[in-house]
Amino acid sequence: MSCHFNNIEISNFKGIDHLEIEGLKSLNVFVGANNVGKTSVLEAIFMLSGMSNPWLPTRINSLHNSSLGTIDGVRFLFHNLDFSNKPLLKAAFGDGIRRLTFEPV
């Protein structure tokens, strides 16, 4: 059984409007200029990998020194900082699919 993601799809997450990456292998390298979304892709993969952990958004927030415990502290996870842009993170691995979406309550 394969334990790595084969494909990922990211929509409305941080600065990413929509992105699909196919053909991922056991080892992948993301390269590019500053501020093009490399870290956002890695954070999406991180969230999909540990999606059963309800503290992941808070931990990611702490990496960005955001205001923890406030609704504005998680706003950076939403595309264009707009809560109406509901993020969708989706990944295929082996015979399974992980899908994660979230919204403020």
Describe what you observe in this structure.
It is a single chain. The chain is α+β, with helices and mostly antiparallel strands and 105 residues long. It has helices spanning 38-49, 56-63; strands at 7-13, 16-21, 88-93, 96-101. The chain has a 4-stranded antiparallel beta sheet, with helices on one face. The protein is globular.
Total number of helices: 2
Main sheet overview: 4 strands, antiparallel
Mean pLDDT: 83
Order of helices and strands: EEHHEE
Helicity, as a percent range? 10-25%
Layout of SSEs?
Blueprint: E1 7-13, E2 16-21, H1 38-49, H2 56-63, E3 88-93, E4 96-101
Antiparallel strand pairs: 1-2, 1-3, 3-4
In short:
The chain is an alpha+beta fold. It is built from 2 helices and 4 strands.
Label this structure with key terms.
24% strand, 105 residues, alpha+beta, globular, single chain, 2 helices, four-stranded antiparallel sheet
